[in-house]
Amino acid sequence: MTTRTSDGGRIELTDLCKRYGSGPLVVDHVTIDIASGEFVTLLGPSGSGKTTTLNMIAGFTEVTAGGIRLAGRDISLLPPHRRNFGMVFQNYALFPHMTVAQNVAFPLRERKVPKAEIERRVGEVLELVDLGGLGGRRPDALSGGQQQRVALARAVVFSPSVLLLDEPLSALDRKLRQSLQQEIKRLHQELGLTFVFVTHDQDEAMALSDRVAVFNSGRIERIGSPADLYREPGTRFVARFLGESNLFDGRLRADGVYEWNGHKWAAPAADGTPEDIDLLVRPERLRIATAPDEPPPGANQAPATVTSLSFQGTHLRIELDYGGGVAGCAVVPPDAAGDGLRPGSRIIAHWDPGHQALATRN
Amino acid sequence: MTADAITSEQATRPPRQNRPDRRRVLSPAGRKRAAGLLLLLPALIALTMFFVLPLVSIVVDSVTDPEPGLSNYAQLFTDGYTLRVLGRTLVVALVVTAAGVLLAYPYTYMMTLAGPTTRAVMVTVVLVPFWTSMLARNFAWMVLMQDGGVVQGALGLVGLGGTRLLGTTFAVTVSMTQVLLPFMVLPMYSVMQQIDRRLLLAGQSLGASRLSSFRKVYFPLSLPGVVAGASLVFVLALGFYVTPALLGSPQNALIAQVISVRTRELLDFGGGGAMGVFMLIVTLAVLAASRRLTGLGSAARVGQMGAGQAVAGQAVAGRNER
What residues of B are in contact with residue A166 (Cβ under 8 Å)? Predict the structure, then answer.
């Protein structure tokens, strides 16, 4: 129903700032170049400026400084109804006094689309989100998941160039959330629109996005593909926010040795300038050994105490205490750790130095 | 009865001995119903004694006094005078309602936008006159409207000096509008504050301008409050007595004054009763129409309407306590 135009959905934010009154910057020089058809997630804790950024893109919030360009054209002064963006809200924001079909027809009516055409497109888009036959219902007669699908249909029926999604799944329970994630992903692939998705849920961000922009106190801390950000978070904040990790707050020495709590580990990737920096290892990269001679040569080792074990079917999750106030965890195949492990067991956690990453503190 | 019928009946009915014996033990549901009736009893007795019986007596008087028949009702529509009063009353009630809607809607809308402090002030501004005695308020209006009073003086500034206000239907309408404003604002507010303002943003994101979004999304959702407030004010205005008695004149009497004169001075209980019954019918018709108007909406809207009526009900209760 829509054709992908080469550059029609490209959004450039340049040094976008927002300040309320004389308060601090809630959005602080945010710069992103979102390609047409890309799925970009703005991820961050509440109050990190991600929703304000989205609202500025939508036109609901006035821009304090900086620019918003759509397909090369500055739109920062355009009122929301002239921007031609679809928007999906956290609470669905369906019009309760209209039927599902009337809700979906609303943007078409506003655009003075002929009646027969409206009917055809409403039918089409309701089929697209699997709601064919429910057009005559009132929104309050639908389940939460169905309501959000109506909201999705309403937001894409007028073929916008960009779809903005403001935590669209956070009001749903876990199972529905996952099926709607798939739905959103499918819609993105079928429609080829630019999606800008706001969430505080890292799993959602990783599962859906081409790129994730991690927000921290108004700034974009890091932006990259989910895999890159997971592998090389770059900062402690991103490491903590995106996935779990075993994070050591030690020091990198000039000779490429990382020191933490008396342990010395190889840090080959380092450039040799001494620095207070974090070293992190993701749980699935960690191996567990019960004897000191077990780890392969060259592996970095850290003794630890098992604090708890939980069997998760596909894997075994082992919570660890490294001492020095650092706790972490390992995720291993269920049979990889032997049967002797129980809370209180002393073990040696080890990993390939190539699987660790350094992250700055901020 | 054929054998077939008997067996099918036995099959569908549960065995007799399994039924609870009502004479000895009440089922939980039955007990609940009994308790409910007991709780209702005081109100039922009071309503019957002080409302139903007098009402019945009025209706009976209206068709028996001075002689059996519908002559009192026929007179309502034939003596000319009563019809004129009825017409005037209806017009005043309509104008008061319309003016009330026009004044209250923007005010109430601002209330939903205001911060907590401003909102508290705005509520108080509406309620303070509502809490002051009805007589005090009407005397205040008399002072304002009297010959040589403030309002007349102000009119003088724009070249309308010497316009007589006191004793006119205009004065009655203005003060009734003020007196009845809380009944408009409160049900409107209870509906408006429940409307999710993000719906307006949604409308804008879908291509509607701010104004269009308001007109197509917010306004229809606020209508139940408008209808609740308007029907309440209209019904109250129909039967208003104090304001027209103090600020109006016998030449421009409204229906309540005429009923009062009939019953207290002319002792024409039948005629007064007929007027009262007629007004009651008009009132019920208005309420039914407003219920119908909002009933066309969704269940949620009816719920909001209910909330609006609840607030209105509290307002009425508060007023009647004085």
Answer: none
